[in-house]
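Let us work through a complete example step by step.
Step 1: write down the sequence.
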Amino acid sequence: MIDAFRQWAFDRRDHTHSQRVYDWWSRHDRVYAAFVAAFLLGRTGEFRDRTVAALSLDPGDTVLDVGCGPGPNFERLADVVGPTGTIVGVDASPGMVKRAKERGEQLDCEVEVLRADARRLPLANDRFDGVCATLSLSAMGDIEAVVAGISDVLLPGGRIAVLDARSFQTAPLRWLNPLIEGISAYITNWYPEAPIVQSVEDMFAEVSIETFHGETVYVVTAKKGG
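Step 2: predict the structure and record it as tokens.
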């Protein structure tokens, strides 16, 4: 029964489903924040801090937030790049883009938010000092194309940092995966088997990974060769 529900949830996902889901979340940002906090067992701020710190940004840098959602990373990024820096956010959901733009207007640095498909970033190559993605890549499907596009827009020597999650890796919690994956696929468009770490390792150098909560949550960082 649970396996059948999981398969039904996975089968119904498409671009329309994804946009509808994330537009709904954009209209319920407090519920969204509470959901993420529960998903990360109350450590949302800590994990976002780790992700931004891993970029090793400097004042005046230009940074890209892929799948930026309503902009929860913007304040952290603005604190690092400062008033001379630039933040660019990209998201496929019109509702999320609207929320992120409103958030960016409150910050003391240049913030640009674009609606775009992360697999085909409408951005110049070799533009960004750093690229982050938090709980977003595993909702995009074609990870190899997304990571390749990120590599294109990164400057040589620039860093990528990805915060994301995967299913339980060991028993007995692993037995809960069909239920959790089915619910998450329905309400977030999650692809739990997305080869994020492998794609980063294939594309970048100096790859490192930190894992948390029984290896279900991880931060993978890497540097573009030059």
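Step 3: interpret the result. The mean pLDDT is 84.
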